Structures are given as C-alpha cells and as structure tokens.
C-alpha cells in the first residue's frame, strides 16, 4: 500500500492522460468510423494501459 501511495502522483497523471485518450479515441471511432487498426490514438492508449499496470505492479 505504501509503495502504491508513493507512485500515486505519477499514476494519477497517467489516469488523466488515459481518460483523455479514451474519450478522443471513442469520438474518432464514432464520428469518423475509423477501424481500430487505423487509429493513431490506439497505440498511445494501449501504452497507458501498460504503464498503469506496471505502476500498480499488476497485469492490468
């Protein structure tokens, strides 16, 4: 618990970034009809998933 608390400021930043990316990604899929493979935001969104999982020391 203490180790997660020390990483919390960085994790909070990642959570905010992920929330923004997810919102933008969903809007792009909905309004532009992009497929997942074609979306430039998808890779950045997936990186936040991995970064948060690493910060929490879980598999996500």
Structure, described:
This protein has 60 residues and is mainly α. It has a domain at 1-32. The chain is 80% helix and 0% strand. The protein contains 2 helices and no strands.
Question: Topology, please?
Answer:
Layout (H helix, E strand, L loop, with lengths): L1 H31 L7 H17 L4
Helix pairs in contact: 1-2
Summarize the structure.
By secondary structure, the chain is an all-alpha fold. It has 2 helices and no strands. It has helices at residues 2-32, 40-56.
Offer a few descriptive terms.
elongated, 80% helix, 0% strand, 60 residues, mainly alpha, 2 helices
Mean pLDDT: 86
Strand residue percentage: under 5%
Counted by DSSP, the helix tally is 2
Largest sheet at a glance?
none
End-to-end gap: 17 Å
What is the gyration radius calculated from CA atoms?
13 Å
- Fraction of residues in helix: over 70%
**What is the H-and-E element order?**
HH
- State the low-pLDDT regions, or none: none
- The class by helix and strand makeup works out as mainly alpha
Q: Categorize the overall geometry.
A: elongated
